[in-house]
Amino acid sequence: MSHKLLSKTLIGCGIAAMSAMLAGNALAAKKVDDHYSKLNQCVGYYNQSQYTQALPCFTEVAKTGNDQAETYLGIMYQHGFGTRPDLAEAARWYTRAARQGDQWAYDNLTAMGNPKLATGKNYAEYSRALEEGVKNGDPAAETATGVMYYYGLGGHKQNYDTARSWFEKAAKKGDATAANYLGRMYYYEIGVEQNSLMAKQYLAQAARGGNAQAKNLLKKMN
Known about the structure:
Low-confidence stretches: 1-32, 114-122
Radius of gyration: 21 Å
Pfam families: Sel1
Structural class: mainly alpha
CATH class of the largest domain: Mainly Alpha
CATH topology of the largest domain: Serine Threonine Protein Phosphatase 5, Tetratricopeptide repeat
Keywords: Signal
InterPro entries: Sel1-like (IPR006597), Sel1_AlgK (IPR050767), TPR-like_helical_dom_sf (IPR011990)
Protein name: Sel1 repeat family protein
Number of strands: 0
Distance between the termini: 41 Å
Helix content: over 70%
Organism: Oxalobacter paraformigenes
Oligomer: single chain
Number of domains: 2
């Protein structure tokens, strides 16, 4: 093969490889969009108390390793939403989400270690405790309140704007979990317009505070 022919061949292969890579990136981006569109559909079922539809929906999304779907499944199995209460199954889903750094799953898993909290907990008592913490300006309580609105728990209707407001208050006080939630919201376009710069800033703050989930997402972004 001549040098000129070899060069043309290599260039052609390079273009083909680049085209394939771009096509792959586009496909990956579409999968991410579809993934979160499906998650939002599941959350919609949950918020409307359509639990028999929410359960299989979250199960499907959870198979992709989504920690939010796993946390919702933990909640549903713990409290018997759309299924019979199954604490073992709830713990399994909470554990999977907690291993990815999901703070709410970790908190719920910890609470399940208390038999009194594990049976029929409806978050009303927890909400009252949070109110006291919020009055005292406790960033952990502010973050937890934000999480309640983020997931639509404890009698709170899901509201990303309200959740973000609470997370911002806590993040300003250095709460790493709050910063992680904000970073994820800006990265995945959850209740806000996608903003990579804001996502990195909040995730970096969370990572400095030791949040493993933020560290992992930052690696994917870089």
